[in-house]
Amino acid sequence: MASILAGLKERSGLSYQELGRRVFTSSSTLHRYCNGKGTPGSYDLVVRIAKECGADAEELNTLLRCWRAAAGQEQDPGSVSAAVNLGPPSSVSTDAAGASVSAVPDGPAARRRPLGMRFVLGAVMALVVLCTAVASTRYEATPAAAVPTPVGATSWAQEPRSVDAELFGVTMNSSSGAMPSFRTGALRLWDSETRWAQVEPVRGEYDWSTLDRLLDGAEREGLPTLFVFGGTPAWAAPDARKAAYPDGSRAAPPDDLDDWDAFVHALVRHAGARIDAYELWVMANHAHHYNGSVTTLVEMTRRASLIIREADRNATVVCPSITNLWAAEAHKYLLRFAELGGYQYCDAAGIKLYQRQISDPPETMLEAVRKVDRTFQRAGYHLPLWSTGTTQSVTLNDPLDEETAADHAVRFYLTGLYARNWNLERMYFYAWGNSKLPLVLQAEGQPPTKAGLFVARLQQWLAHADLRSCGHGLPIALPENVWQCEFLIPDERGTPRTARIRWTHAGTADTRVGAGARTAEYLDGTAREVDPDDTLPVTERPILIRYS
Question: Which residues does residue 522 pair with via DSSP β-bridges, in sequence order?
Fold first, then answer.
C-alpha cells in the first residue's frame, strides 16, 4: 500500500504539504503512510489521497485490497467500493439509526459543487443529526454542584473524516528514552532536557545524547515527534533575563541571529526525518519564555522555516505557541505576529488550550478555541491549530482525585475532536513521565494510572473511526448537560456502523439509546447489550453506544 501511495504521490507532482492541505491531513502523517510507517485508519482517507493524485478505478481497487491486508479488515470489497462511491455518484442509504443519508462523491468533483448544492447537503446532514437525536432523547438531567458552564460550543455535522491517531499526543517530561506503555499517537519534546541551552551548551559544540535517546524511542514505537525550540543559551544572550529553568538559559532571542541559524541547521541535519515537526518557540507571549520583540520572533520564524524546509520538505513547521488565550492581550499578540507576516512561514499555528481552573470541565476550552478562530479570521489566516501544552503554572495546582482525573483526561481529547470544527488538528497532553502534576497519565517507571488506561481505551474505540458530527444540549435534542460525538466505526465484518460517544460536563442525565442500538461500552472495558427503548444514565465519564 505504501509503495502504491508513494508512486501516486510522485506521479501527481504534489508536495506532501499541498496534498495534506487538500485531504485535511498533516504532511508528516502522509509521509508515514507513503513510507510504510503508518496505516490510514479508514479506507475513505486512502481514497481521498488517491483521488487527489489522479488514481483510476483499478488503482483504487488495488489499494482497497492492500489497505484491508494492512489494517487487518475482513470486509466485502463491493460494499466498501459502494460506500466510497467508485462507481456512479450518489445513492441514498440508511444509517444505523434509520435515517436517510446521501452517499456523495469525494475528491475534486465534490469541492466543485455549486454553493447552493453544498448548502443543501450541509442542511440535510444537520437535519439528520437533529432528527436522529430527537428520536433517541429523554429529557431527564441531574445537575452537579455548581461548575463553570461551557459556552461557545456550537453543534456541527460534516462529511465523515478519519480520526487521526496523531490527535492523541503527549508531551514528554523524560530524558531517558522510555516511552509510554499505554497507547498514544504522537510525542512532543519539552521539559525533556532538549532545550537549546542543553543541546548546545557551548557555541558550536553539541550534545545530542538525550535527543537521540528520545528519537530512538519514538522511532521504535512508530510515533511522530514534535521538537520544541526554546531556552536560548547564556553564551548567545549573556545580558538577557534568565528563563524559568535552572540551566541558565535565557528568555530572549540570541544577540546574533546567525547563532539561531547555526543551531537550526545543526539540529535538522543531525535529526533528519526522525523529527516530523518543529514548534518554533514555546509560549512566545509569556515573559518567562520569550521577552524579545515580535518583529524579531517573526524573523526567527522566517529563518527557521526556510532552513527546515530546505533540509526536509516533509517536516511540519508549527509557528510559536501562544498561551493565556483567555486574555485579550494574547489575541493582540497573535494579531501582531500575523500582521508582520509570521504565519505565512508555517504549516500550523501553535496554541495552548487549558481550562481557567484545573478543575473546570475540559469542555470550557472550546470558548478559547472559538476566540482563536475569530482572531485568525480577523488576521486573514486559516491554519490548522496544534494545541501544544498547558499553562506555565500547572504545577501549582492540587492533584485531582483519581476518578475526576480519569474523566477529564478522556474528555480533554474528546474536546479536541469537538474542536475539529475550528480546524484543531493535534492535542498534546501535558505531560508523560512527570508524577508531580494535578493529572498524571503515567509516571516514568510506574504503570499507567486509571486516566492513562482510559485514554488508551478511547483510542482503541476510535482506531478506525470516521467523525461525522458533534453536538451538545438542546440543539441536538439532548439534555443541556449532555455532549455527543457521532462516528462511523467498522464492525467485526468491516462495515461502517454508527457509534456515539456521550457524556456530561457536570451531573448526570438519562437518555434513550435510540433505534438500532445494540451495545453500550464503558471505559473500564465492560459492555452490555441494549435495546432501542433502553434508557442509559449518562455521566461525566464518556460511554460508547454502537448501532447495527
Answer: 543
Residues contacting residue 190 through CB under 8 Å, at least 6 positions apart: 171, 172, 173, 228, 230, 282, 389, 431
Grid coordinates belonging to 233: 543559551
Which cell goes with 407? 474523566
Question: CA torsion angle for 402, 218, 168, 272 (degrees, to 10)?
Answer: 150
Within 10 Å of residue 456's Cβ, how many Cβ atoms? 21
Alpha helices in 136-182 (DSSP H): none
Phi, psi of 320 (to 5 degrees): -50, 135
Which cell numbers in the block locate residue 15? 508536495
Per-residue pLDDT band for 23 (boundaries 50, 70, 90) equals: low
Instruction: Round to whole Å and give the CA distance between 248 and 251.
Output: 10
The C-alpha cell that represents 352 in the structure block: 495552548
Strands (E), 165-229: 168-172, 186-189, 225-228
Q: What share of the chain is helix, strand, coil (3-state, %, to 5)?
A: 40, 20, 40
Cell representation of residue 497: 456502523
Block residue for cell numbers 517573526: 298
Q: What 3-state DSSP class applies to 257?
A: helix
Percentage above 90 pLDDT, the chain:
73
Buried b (16+ CB within 10 A) or exposed e, 203-229: eeeeeeebbebbbebbeeeebbbbbbb
CB atoms within 10 A of CB 493: 11
- Say if residues 463 and 41 touch (Cβ distance below 8 Å): yes
Q: How far apart are CA 22 and CA 108, in angstroms?
A: 9
Q: Please tell me the distance from the alpha carbon of residue 261 to that of residue 4, in angstroms, as a whole number.
A: 37
Cis peptide before 57 (omega within 30 of 0): no
Write out the DSSP string of 82-137.
HHTT-SSS-EEEE-TTS-EEEE---SHHHHTS-HHHHHHHHHHHHHHHHHHHHHT-
Q: DSSP 3-state assignment of 432? A: strand
Mean pLDDT of 365-394: 95
- Contact predicate 281/319, CB 8 Å: no
User: CA 337 to CA 290: how far, in whole Å?
Assistant: 14
Tell whether the model's pLDDT for residue 124 goes beyond 50.
no
Sheet holding 527-529, edge to edge: 156-162, 466-472, 482-490, 496-504, 543-547, 517-522, 527-529
Q: How far apart are CA 371 and CA 31, in angstroms?
A: 32
Return the higher-pLDDT residue of 527 and 60.
527
Kindly list the distances between the CA atom of residue 170 and the CA atoms of 29, 218, 232, 332, 472, in Å, as whole numbers in the listed order.
Answer: 16, 12, 24, 28, 27
Alpha-carbon gap, residue 358 to 543, rounded angstroms: 23
pLDDT, tens digit (0-9, with 9 covering 90-100), for 301-318 = 999 999 999 999 999 999
320 touches 333 (CB < 8 A): no
Across 202-328, the runs of DSSP E, i.e. the strands, are 225-228, 277-279, 316-322
Cell of 329: 492581550
